[in-house]
Amino acid sequence: MADLHFTDAVATDGERVAIDLALGDNRATEAEGERVVRGGASRRRGLRHLLLPALHALQKESGWISPGGLNYVSEVLQVPPAESYGVASFYEMFRVDTEPGHDDDVVHVCIDPACRIDGADELIASLEAEGKHVHRSPCLGQCERPPAVFIQGRKAPDVVPADAEPFVLPQAGDGNLQLLKRLGVVDPTSLESYLEHGGYQALTRALEMGPEAVLEAITDAGLSGRGGAAFPTGIKWTAVREAEGADKHIVANCDESEPGTFKDRMVMEHDPFALVEAMTIAAVTTGASNGWIYIRGEYPQATGRLENAIAQARDAGLLGDDVAGSGQSFELEVRRGAGAYICGEETALFNSLEGFRGEPRNKPPFPTTNGLFDQPTVINNPETLLNIVPIVLEGAEAYRSRGTERSPGTRLFCVSGRVVTPGLYEHAFGATLGDVIAAAGGAEGDVQAVLLGGAAGSFVTADSMDLPLTLEATREAGTTLGSGVVMVFNASDDLVDVCQRIAEFFKNESCGQCVPCRVGAVRQHEMIVAIGSKPMPQDKRDLHEDMVKVMADASICGLGHTAASAIKSALALGLIGADQ
Amino acid sequence: MTTTTETAVTISVNGSDVSVAAGDTILDACTAAGVDTPTICYGPTLTPVNACRVCVVELEGSRTLVPSCSRPVEEGMVVQTETERVNHSRKMVLEFLGSGVDLSQAEEITGWMQQYGAQPERYDNPERMNEEVKIQDDLYVRDYDKCVLCYKCVEACGDDAQHTYAISVSGRGFGARIATEFDVSLPDSACVYCGNCVAVCPTNALQFKTEFDLRKMENWRPEDQSVTTTVCSYCGVGCNLELHTQDERIVKVTSPDDHSVTWGNLCIKGRFGWQYVHGDSDG
Ligand SMILES: Cc1cc2nc3c(=O)[nH]c(=O)nc-3n(C[C@H](O)[C@H](O)[C@H](O)COP(=O)(O)O)c2cc1C
Ligand code: SF4
Ligand code: SF4
Ligand code: SF4
Ligand code: FES
Ligand code: FES
Asked: Which residues contact A218 (CB under 8 A, 6 or more apart)?
């Protein structure tokens, strides 16, 4: 056992104040005096989960993670400085380098597909000409309004300039909307307005029904996860209800970083109380008393609205020691990520929230028994959670009247790229790809390809317009709905460039933990760049196939499993690498 | 060894039943069944990080392959270790490592590369680790050009042995590196020079300065070395030391993994104190 050892670097007064402010009453070291570092699991229970909030405060104050500031954070939270550094250097939004201008405001500009076909390069060139500090960012979750920008302020709030524009829901007024019906209608900053629009009826109903009946309704409704893996929600919630353990958690996975995805942001920004209500239903149903919203760091407006919604709900007795008079307690806290796609993987998210590197854990054990802080945890995507409201209110049967037998209900689609009206759409499962594109005003120009399900999904061509967008039909067609991404490319778009960027995305976003993904993603990128617009010779195709296999078979998590699938589909469809 | 106790669990490995204790891993079962399994990030004294994936096996009912080193056995599991899928993944993991890391002093790994037919030369201009050797003291050197990021040194320095936490994985993806905070030099870091990280490193990325210097002079001759076991005399704990000598000089010190006092770990005195024996501690 040893006390922590620090270098001589000392925090500035400003850094201390900023970090103390972020940690509030949670600083415990003075009282504890001569504290030693304890090993293993016991450290997880300490203050370490405050590492990300503390690093955010330091980054904001100094424009980077300074050595003195890192020492102070590490001392206050009793985290070894080498580990704090390992964590800080994992995230895009924390800077540990000393390049000139490194401590300015940072203008993040998205260079992912929807933005790179729509002006990202030009915007970056002009911003750099103005002397701005530009960071080329992966998808910023604003694909409906390219090119996307997020400004990380130094000693100033983070802003998304486009948030100043009025919000338009393309399907506004459509009576069939289930999940989106309040967006653009309700005042997202007011609990009163939410209550006027039917808010909290579902929680009341759920408390009347009791947990068993709620679980049965969710299971009968056939609700499956909307975060990408389509796991049955009823099974997950039931397992957590049945799991041993006094402390259980509900986590909303709002990391939303799959390129092409922006649905969760829109819901959080324009109907934040609905997410809070749905999480509360999850809590009273599974017996969890701790709730966490882990939201990507590039979503300042959604973060603010959720924090406001939580505060109002708490004041109204809808959160806290006695939720809506039920006798159950449920506390909800918002935690910001700091720029890492992998932190959307559920077990990486737990590690990140606990103050460790965002590296996925090996499964089993599963989150339902060994989740956040190694305790039973429900983790769901916000869209999944939103579905709870109609299921509780109208029952499983009515819920199943939409969608197909094996894919009941509706689905949110993030439509971007070459369509007349990009944006967020809700359709019953079973609408075809052609229907979804038509609802967005139709394609602009001749469709060359559509990226379905995000960068972790796959390409299809104009031949697939009749494909019903259900779990079963997409699976059979060898593709996926993933997070509901429909990104359309027309004949003028350079798919070689798009594929190179997708390969680069996975190379950059791999956590680096396991060999198949850490090295495989780099080798794939090198190969796709080397091929360019040339035909891909057979030996290289075989090599790519060899890489696909090991990544899908032997990687730890879904990132590695799918990192080659879009490229594989592009090669198979002849979108890249084809003989001339 | 096959143990048949009340809590024994029986699984099938390549068609034969094998019984091991509950809580054992598939790797333990494979070993009990006489099946050799390559491992890189696994260490008998370390918590499995299951990061390298070279030990994967096929488990009936699992969509993907599973890491044998960390997956606990469950009654009735059916495991295959010699299928085309398993061989392919092992070969590719080794090939990927060989394409980016200097494995010239990792004899065990290069042996497996031959066995599985890895061909790292299949990649055109592959990005490599590209690291300079870090020589910051007279005790040991860090040559991260040879690092496979197995996390073993981090574990040995942290939770699994030393509780010093001088080093961690930093960065992300292919840019991930083992480092102190801001990469400050070891003497400026929390390092206490126990050398436990050196003892677990599978690739010689961490090596005694004596070995490094002898190799540089092309005078590192393992075949001419002898190992003497003794008990460390610096204090009363009673650590077993294995003194490796070449030309009657101690060139490195290890401790057996299965020694009940040390589990392979030592402190600076046991690990490096022998330099005083030769009176050349200052260089
Ligand atoms: C690399 C990677 C990124 C992911 N990102 C997200 C995400 O941003 N949001 C999300 O809900 N699920 C994401 N997931 C899926 C989660 O691991 C998990 O399956 C999901 O949150 C479960 O919720 P659901 O059942 O409601 O879909 C991601 C998975 C992987 C492998
Ligand atoms: S598959 Fe990739 S992202 Fe997932 S654990 Fe392995 S290296 Fe990390
Ligand atoms: S010598 Fe010991 S203290 Fe120093 S880095 Fe290695 S394991 Fe950690
Ligand atoms: S230095 Fe050695 S022990 Fe540490 S991660 Fe690299 S290869 Fe593994
Ligand atoms: S914001 Fe640019 S692709 Fe999503
Ligand atoms: S030895 Fe099992 S994953 Fe490395």
From this structure: A233, A234, A237, A388, A391, A396
- Which of B122, B123, B159 lies nearest to residue A39, judging by beta carbons? B159
Judge if the beta carbon of residue A458 lies within 6 A of ligand 2. no
Reduced 3-state DSSP string for B16-37: EEEEEECCCEHHHHHHHCCCCC
CA of A340 to the centre of ligand 1 (A): 13
Same domain, B251 and B222: yes
B268 and B171 within one domain: yes
Q: Tell which one of A268, A343, A346, A378 to mutate to probe ligand 1, the residue whose CB is within 8 A of the most ligand atoms.
A: A346
What homologous superfamily does CATH list for A191-399? NADH-ubiquinone oxidoreductase 51kDa subunit (3.40.50.11540)
In a domain? residue B130: no
B109 ligand 3 Cβ < 6 A: no
ipTM above threshold 0.85:
yes
- Say yes or no: CB of residue B179 within 6 Å of ligand 3: no
The CATH number covering residue B246 comes to 2.20.25.90
Both B268 and B158 in one domain: the answer is: yes
Which residues on B lie below 8 Å from A89 (Cβ)?
170-172
Q: Which 3-state string (H, E, C) describes A15-74?
A: HHHHHHHHHHHHCCHHHHCCCCCCCCHHHHCCCHHHHHHHHHHHHHHHCCCCHHHHHHHH
b/e A289-307 (16+ beta carbons within 10 angstroms → b): bbbbbbbbbbbbbbbbbbb
Return the number of CB contacts < 8 Å for A and B. 173
pLDDT of residue B278: 64
Structure token pair of residue A168: 């338009």
pLDDT of the residue at A153: 96
pTM recorded for the entire structure: 0.96
Task: State residue B164 phi and psi, 5-degree precision.
Answer: -100, -30
